[in-house]
């Protein structure tokens, strides 16, 4: 099956809006949330400890593939990514929903996955109702504004990251980013111009709404 893009629904705070398609991986109660919204996941996975046995049976029956996690060696998100890459080897983009919410430990774990070298050939984004989070790799990245998202921020992952930004409201050249000072947040897009970002290390890029 030649699938280039797939979505993941984790079990955090569920989004109010999300794409309607069957190219979804549901994780634990995220799979049940998809079913309740009329979507049969192409893949469901997890240990399913957050849903009842009856609900789990429904998930297993209505998903094309179902993978059960038997140990805690991997986080739920990583377990899902591993099986997506195993089943759909042509995938190039993965959007993750339900990754933010009350559990900050889960949230930070999901953020770190974005920079995991195992997934560096795939464009991965974390999306909720107010933010999109992704990684810009070392070197030059060109990205466009997204309707509804007024702001973007650059957050360093590594110490002493040199950054140049062009075509944004606040342009900088050779700004040194450090881990103890958030000095590249709340920048703004300028009309519909493409942002040119050049960095000496991988960084997080966050799109945000008001």
Task: Report on the architecture of this protein.
The protein has 210 residues and is α/β, with parallel strands linked by helices. It folds into two domains: 5-129, Rossmann fold; 135-208, Thiamin pyrophosphokinase, thiamin-binding domain (Jelly Rolls), CATH 2.60.120. Helices cover 19% and strands 33% of the residues. A ten-stranded mixed beta sheet has the order 4-3-2-1-5-6-7-14-9-12, with helices on both faces. Strands 8-13-10-11 form a four-stranded antiparallel beta sheet, with no helix packed on it. It is elongated.
What is the topological layout?
Blueprint: E1 5-9, E2 24-27, H1 29-36, E3 43-46, H2 53-62, E4 65-68, H3 76-87, E5 93-97, H4 104-113, E6 123-127, E7 131-136, E8 139-143, E9 151-156, E10 161-166, E11 172-177, E12 187-188, E13 195-199, E14 203-208
Entry summary:
The chain is α/β, with parallel strands linked by helices and about 210 residues long. The chain has helices spanning about 30-35, 55-60, 75-85, 105-115; strands at about 5-10, 25, 45, 65-70, 95, 125, 130-135, 140-145, 150-155, 160-165, 170-175, 185-190, 195-200, 205-210.
Key attributes of the depicted protein:
Rossmann fold, alpha/beta, 210 residues, Jelly Rolls, 33% strand, ten-stranded mixed sheet, TPK_catalytic, 14 strands, 2 domains
| Number of continuous helical runs | 4
* Classification by helices and strands: alpha/beta
* Annotated CATH topology of the largest domain: Rossmann fold
- The CATH superfamily of the largest domain is known as Thiamin pyrophosphokinase, catalytic domain
CATH architecture identity of the largest domain: 3-Layer(aba) Sandwich
Strand order, main sheet: write it out: 4-3-2-1-5-6-7-14-9-12
Give the overall average pLDDT: 92
The fraction of residues in strands falls at 25-35%
What distance separates the N and C termini?
Answer: 39 Å
CATH secondary-structure class of the largest domain: Alpha Beta
Helicity, as a percent range: 10-25%
> What is the domain total for the residues?
2
Return Rg in Å. Answer: 18 Å
What is the tally of beta strands? 14
- In terms of per-residue confidence, which ranges show pLDDT below 50 for 5 or more consecutive residues? none
**How is the biggest beta sheet arranged?**
10 strands, mixed
- Helices and strands, in N-to-C order? EEHEHEHEHEEEEEEEEE
Apparent shape: elongated
EC number: 2.7.6.2
Keywords: ATP-binding, Kinase, Nucleotide-binding, Transferase
GO biological process, one term: thiamine metabolic process
Enzyme class: transferase
């Amino acid at each position: 099956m030649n699938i280039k893009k797939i979505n993941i629904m984790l079990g955090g705070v569920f989004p109010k809006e999300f794409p309607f398609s069957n190219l979804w991986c549901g994780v634990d109660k995220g799979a049940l949330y998809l079913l309740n919204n009329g979507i049969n996941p192409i893949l469901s996975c997890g240990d399913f400890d957050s849903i009842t046995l009856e609900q789990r049976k429904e998930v297993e029956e209505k998903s094309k593939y179902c993978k059960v996690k038997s140990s805690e060696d991997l986080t739920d998100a990583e377990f899902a990514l591993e099986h997506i890459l195993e089943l759909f080897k042509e995938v190039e983009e993965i959007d993750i929903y339900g990754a933010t919410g009350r559990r900050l430990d889960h949230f930070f774990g999901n953020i770190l996955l974005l920079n995991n070298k195992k997934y560096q050939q795939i464009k991965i984004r974390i999306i909720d109702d107010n933010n999109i989070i992704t990684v810009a790799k070392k070197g030059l990245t060109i990205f466009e504004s997204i309707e509804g998202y007024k702001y973007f921020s650059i957050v360093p992952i590594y110490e002493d990251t040199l950054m140049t930004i062009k075509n944004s409201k606040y342009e900088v050249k050779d700004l040194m980013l450090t881990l103890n000072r958030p000095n590249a947040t709340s920048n703004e897009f300028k009309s519909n111009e493409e942002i040119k970002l050049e960095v000496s290390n991988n960084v997080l890029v966050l799109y945000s709404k008001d």
